[in-house]
Amino acid sequence: MTTTYPALVDFTSGAGPESGLYRPGTTGSLADLHALTLSQGDVLYFDGTNLTRLAAGTAGQVLQTNGAGANPSWSAVSAVSVGALTLLGSATASGSSPTLTVSSIPSGYTDLVVRFSGRSAKAAGTDSIDMLVNGDSTNSHYALHVISGNAANAATSGAAASTAQLQLVPVGPAASAAANYPAVAEAVIFDYAGSFYKKMVNVSDGFYGTTNVGSVLGMQNGTWLSTAAITSLTAQTSGAASNLVAGSKLLVYGRS
Fold first, then answer.
1. What is the C-alpha separation between 34 and 7, in angstroms, rounded?
2. Structure confidence at residue 148 as a pLDDT band (50, 70, 90)
3. Whole-prediction pTM value?
């Protein structure tokens, strides 16, 4: 369909009741619209010289401004991922190692999600796996509350000023536990890059044991008693007194 229009005149200059108006019927400075062919859904816009046509977009697109001095366009609506995880760094023990560290953690995410799997090489049935924040090994800089147990019983521990760092795994398998069973843990550190609150951590963990070392499930709530942004995390055996076995992993994700 071809639609024709009368010529337009520019009354933006001058004074009187018609100043600032466009009135059909006379010849003026605006581009002539006679040659435009319009279809349903088309949009007219000014390209800096003439009025011109933007053809209708496809279903679901939105009209997007591209700023002053640029023409508008149709664009797809960007999906917003809430709670999506982005891997920020990982560390894997290739041999027995006392620590695993992920450093240079960037800001720009809402929370951190930390995942650990592995076990201690300590000559015992169990050992704990601790977590240091920004390399801080001062015990009094942490607070920790722990619930752990199995199907038969549970125990609690903790204090406002802890005698250990944050714990990813309060009770995990060590050298004399059944082979090839790791402890696993997932921790969420809230508002890790903020500067107002002390850093709160919620952890869930567990491992499957056999008759010599029973299975254990745990939940922890801990605090690093600092308002500084978190830029590195370290997993280590209790007090770094023994090694993590080969294959132990620490992964750090940013959550949007």
1. 8
2. confident
3. 0.67
